[in-house]
């Protein structure tokens, strides 16, 4: 496999569909365009053409054909797009026609985007923004991803990076011209003050990044409690469909089940888990282990306690762990509550999936929780752990550089260089070869 290969893939969704888009990128795209269609193609205009098999000349489909000569294409290479009818046999016939050409092969997942990156059409944060945009499920995720794809994040980091490179150049100029026993003069005082300001900007940026990461992956809300507490029933009620199996048998749920909800444009992942108890069976024990793991990773745990049980399991054992997520206690099966128990303890919420009592109120509270924990920022924010790691490296190099006046100026300038390098890694301007497979592996084939 080489990058001089021409690649092709179905870039639109699953078949059958009204229209299917086959994208072809690489040096043989022009020739393919000539041989599949018989008249010349104008750049970036849609042409309605019969597509013929290059060997038999049989007409395979009538399609819209668009020709994007390099470098003005998504990948920066010659790109041909065939918008054909979305039948499985149509696409299979066109793929068969393409396989006739030498050095033309199906694309791997993310390979078009990888080529766009290699050609400098997108930097890494823009690539990640594109992956997030394709994966986005809610309005707020779409907005955040689009901003990142448009280069909003790289712009900030590139600006900081050039500030640091300039600071370093000033320090080095001072080193070149100063006498050995010269005390660093006024130029470097200004430089260090600027570096200090930048460090606090980065600190603020980092402190906001958790919120943006949460928006990217969605708020994790885990339903937990004893077996038969009504977790799966609540999951189905909130998702408004039959996601989880519900039976009267304690220990029904073993696997972790997840559904994605859109609460007023905010992404929430709702997780149903196995009921927590001392279980005998191997399968159930594994289910409970997974349930506990999900609880630890949650942003919010909804702990269900059935209203018809006086002494039901409480989440107290969870609260002994350090770093516990927020826990809301829900009185489930409120339709079964005896009159003596109906007065709610303060802070608890009662719901019934039978009568739907309390459900709207719960949805409202969850929506408010999501809104409080996903602040929408107009400024681009770091959205991934990868960004945070490099920003933290940058910050510690900056702190090393100005923490000690006694350190030789050469070493302090070197710290500035390292800090700038960490920022360069975020947008991929500085060697990141080791991470590329991970980042591009996120894409589907055809992107
Ligand atoms: N009366 C009443 N019964 C309910 C309600 N919610 C659930 N149930 C019943 O309680 C039983 C257990 O419900 P599930 O949703 O399977 O409970 P679970 O917590 O997921 O149980 P496990 O997966 O076994 O841990 C079923 O028979 C449900 O029909 C409710 O609001 N009111
Ligand atoms: K059950
Ligand atoms: Mg269940």
Radius of gyration: 29 Å
Beta-strand share of residues:
15-25%
Largest sheet entry: 6 strands, mixed
How many helices? The count is 14
Total count of domains = 3
The helix/strand class is alpha/beta
Which CATH architecture of the largest domain? 3-Layer(aba) Sandwich
Do you know the CATH topology of the largest domain? Rossmann fold
Task: Please describe what this structure looks like.
With 447 residues, the chain is an alpha/beta fold. The chain folds into three domains: 6-117, 2-Layer Sandwich (Gyrase A, domain 2); 127-208 and 383-441, Four Helix Bundle (Hemerythrin (Met), subunit A), CATH 1.20.120; 219-373, P-loop containing nucleotide triphosphate hydrolases (Rossmann fold). Helix content is 45%, strand content 18%. It is built from 14 helices and twelve strands. It has helices spanning 29-36, 88-98, 111-118, 124-135, 139-149, 152-177, 186-217, 231-239, 282-297, 316-319, 359-373, 385-403, 409-427, 433-441; strands spanning 6-10, 17-25, 46-52, 59-68, 79-86, 104-106, 219-225, 257-263, 266-272, 300-306, 326-332, 349-350. The chain has a six-stranded mixed β-sheet. A six-stranded mixed β-sheet has the order 8-9-7-10-11-12, sandwiched between helices. Helix 4 runs antiparallel to helix 5, helix 6 runs antiparallel to helix 7 and helix 12 (385-403) packs antiparallel against helix 13. The chain starts with 5 loop residues before the first strand and ends in a 6-residue tail after the last helix. The model has no long low-confidence stretch (mean pLDDT 90). The structure holds guanosine-5'-triphosphate (GTP), potassium ion and magnesium ion. This is tRNA modification GTPase MnmE. Keywords: Cytoplasm, GTP-binding, Hydrolase, Magnesium, Metal-binding, Nucleotide-binding, Potassium, tRNA processing. One of its GO terms (molecular function) is GTP binding.
């Amino acid at each position: 496999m080489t990058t001089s290969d021409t690649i092709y893939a179905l870039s639109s969704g699953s078949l059958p569909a009204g229209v299917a888009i086959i994208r072809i990128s690489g040096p043989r795209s022009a020739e393919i365009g000539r041989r599949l269609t018989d008249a010349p193609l104008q750049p970036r205009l849609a042409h309605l053409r019969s597509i013929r098999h290059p060997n038999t000349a049989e007409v395979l489909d009538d399609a819209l054909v668009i020709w994007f000569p390099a470098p003005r294409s998504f990948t920066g290479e010659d790109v041909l797009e065939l918008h054909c009818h979305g039948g499985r046999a149509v696409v299979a016939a066109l793929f068969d026609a393409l396989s006739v050409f030498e050095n033309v092969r199906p694309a791997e997942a993310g390979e078009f985007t990888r080529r766009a990156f290699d050609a400098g059409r997108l930097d890494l944060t823009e690539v990640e923004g594109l992956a997030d945009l394709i994966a986005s499920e809610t309005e707020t995720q779409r907005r955040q991803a689009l901003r990142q794809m448009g280069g909003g994040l790289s712009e900030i980091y590139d600006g900081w990076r050039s500030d640091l490179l300039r600071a370093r150049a000033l320090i080095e100029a001072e080193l070149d011209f100063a006498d050995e026993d010269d005390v660093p003069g006024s130029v470097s005082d200004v430089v260090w003050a600027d570096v200090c300001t930048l460090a606090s900007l980065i600190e603020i940026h980092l402190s906001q990044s958790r919120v943006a990461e949460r928006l990217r992956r969605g708020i994790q809300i885990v339903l937990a409690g004893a077996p038969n507490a009504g977790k799966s029933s609540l999951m189905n009620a909130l998702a408004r469909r039959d996601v989880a199996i519900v039976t009267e048998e304690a220990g029904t749920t073993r696997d972790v089940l997840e559904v994605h909800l859109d609460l007023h444009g905010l992404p929430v992942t709702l997780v149903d888990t196995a009921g927590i108890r001392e279980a005998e069976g191997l399968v159930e024990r594994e289910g409970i282990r997974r349930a506990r793991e999900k609880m630890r990773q949650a942003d919010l745990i909804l702990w269900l306690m059935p209203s018809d049980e006086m002494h039901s399991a409480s989440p107290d054992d969870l609260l002994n762990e350090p770093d516990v997520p927020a826990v809301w206690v829900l009185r489930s099966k409120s339709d079964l509550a005896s009159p003596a128990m109906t007065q709610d303890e303060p802070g608890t919420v009662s719901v019934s999936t039978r009568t739907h009592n309390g459900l709207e109120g719960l949805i409202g509270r969850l929506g408010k929780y999501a809104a409080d924990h996903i602040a929408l920022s107009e400024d681009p924010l770091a959205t991934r752990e990868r960004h945070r790691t490099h920003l933290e490296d940058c910050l510690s190099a900056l702190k090393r550089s100005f923490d000690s006046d006694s350190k030789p100026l050469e070493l302090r300038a070197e710290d500035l260089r390292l800090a700038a390098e960490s920022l360069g890694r975020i947008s991929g301007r500085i060697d990141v070869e080791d991470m590329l497979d991970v980042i591009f592996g996120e894409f589907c084939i055809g992107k």
